[in-house]
C-alpha cells in the first residue's frame, strides 16, 4: 500500500487541490486500472453463471492436441 504525502493547495482558506509526486501518481493509476480490470472480470464471471465449461486439458484432448509432456515422452 502506498503512503501518500500530498501537498494540499488552498484557495480562500479551503482545500482545493492535492498535489502528489509523479511516481505516486503512476502507482495509483496502475492500481485503478487493475481495479477496473477486476470489476470487468467479476462482471463477466457473474454473467456466465453456471454455463457449461471445459478444462484446457479436455479441450486439447477433444481437438487431438498432445500436451508438451506427451510429445516429449513419445520423442
Structural features:
75 residues; alpha+beta
Overview of the molecule:
- With 75 residues, the protein is of the alpha+beta class.
- 56% of the residues lie in helices and 15% in strands.
- The protein contains 3 helices and 2 strands.
- The protein has helices at 22-48, 56-63, 68-74, and strands at 7-11, 14-19.
- A two-stranded antiparallel ribbon has the order 1-2.
Shape: elongated
Walk across the major sheet and give the strand order: 1-2
Number of H- or I-type helical stretches: 3
What is the arithmetic mean of pLDDT? 88
* Assembly context of the chains: single chain
The profile of the biggest β sheet is: 2 strands, antiparallel
Distance between the termini: 49 Å
Number of strands: 2
Low-confidence residue ranges: none
Strand fraction: 5-15%
Helix-strand pattern, N to C? EEHHH
Helical fraction = 55-70%
The value of Rg in angstroms is 25 Å
Structural class: alpha+beta
Q: What is this entry, summarized?
A:
By secondary structure, the chain is α+β, with helices and mostly antiparallel strands. The chain contains 3 helices and 2 strands.
Per-chain topology:
Layout: E1 7-11, E2 14-19, H1 22-48, H2 56-63, H3 68-74
Antiparallel strand pairs: 1-2
